[in-house]
Amino acid sequence: MDHLLLMIWHALLVSVFFAFLWRSTAVGRRNLFLKTFLIMVVGAAALGWLMFPFP
Amino acid sequence: MTARGTKSQKNKPADSTKEKRGRGQNRASAPLLLGSWFLPGFGHWRLGKKRRAGVFAAVIFCAFVTGVFLHGEIGTPKPESPFSWLAAFACLGNGVLAIARLVWLNGLGGLLSGFPFALQGGGSPSAAGFAYGNTFLYTAGLMNLLAVLDVSDIARGEKD
């Protein structure tokens, strides 16, 4: 299975969980979900690129 | 009038502090917390948070099933490896899902006779998804444990 897809699936599940755990309004949940999901996916991709030159 | 006003002003903060302390002293019932751990989403459902219960149950179930399909291993304690206790703790957080998986792998007799050091956790270390599968299993268990703490907070009136 594609590693990127697995990472996105994992980020999706965790983001949905924390959005419902920490926020009680629909808007708050949507905002937290988008924030955590993007941080995890974009952050992981950025870290991958940063580590690329290292052996 | 001034004296009465001063008295009521003095009483107000004391009452609210007492009220706050009273709220904090409430304890969530043990069966509710145990049920919440055993069946993901159960505690929130009992407290009337049905939407949250459904989402938590679905997320934890999806993460657990993904972990199993990726050949992840249910953590079991090993005497020579202290970190295996942490993995076992995280995996047991899945409640009935982890127990059902252990029964599937060991049989009911094997589960009872082999507990805790001779249990088979399944998984395949040579599989490409082994490490990913473990991550999904640990994450699902830890999310369920966080949900149990959330149930405790809601039952004590600390959170909506």
Q: Which structural traits does this protein have?
A:
heterodimer; A: 55 residues; mainly alpha; 0% strand; elongated; B: 160 residues; 7 helices; 71% helix; globular; disordered N terminus
Can you characterise this structure?
The complex is a heterodimer of chains A (55) and B (160). By secondary structure, chain A is mainly α. In chain A, 84% of the residues lie in helices and 0% in strands. Chain A contains 2 helices and no strands. In chain A, α1 (3-22) packs antiparallel against α2. Chain A is elongated. Chain B has one domain. In chain B, α2 packs antiparallel against α7 (130-155), α4 (50-69) runs antiparallel to α7 (130-155) and α5 (83-92) packs across α7 (130-155). Chain B has 160 residues and is mostly helical. Chain B is built from 7 helices and no strands. Chain B is globular. Classes of the chains: A mainly alpha (55), B mainly alpha (160). The interface between A and B is medium-sized, with 12 and 21 residues.
Topology:
The complex is a heterodimer of chains A (55) and B (160).
Chain A: H1 3-22, H2 26-51
Chain B: H1 2-25, H2 30-38, H3 42-46, H4 50-69, H5 83-92, H6 96-114, H7 130-155
Helix pairs in contact in B: 2-7, 4-7, 5-7
Outline of this structure?
With 55 residues, chain A is an all-alpha fold. Helices cover 84% and strands 0% of the residues of chain A. Chain A has one domain.
Tell me the domain tally of chain B: 1
Topology order of chain A in helix (H) and strand (E) letters: HH
- Assembly state: heterodimer
Strand content of chain B: under 5%
Number of helices of chain A: 2
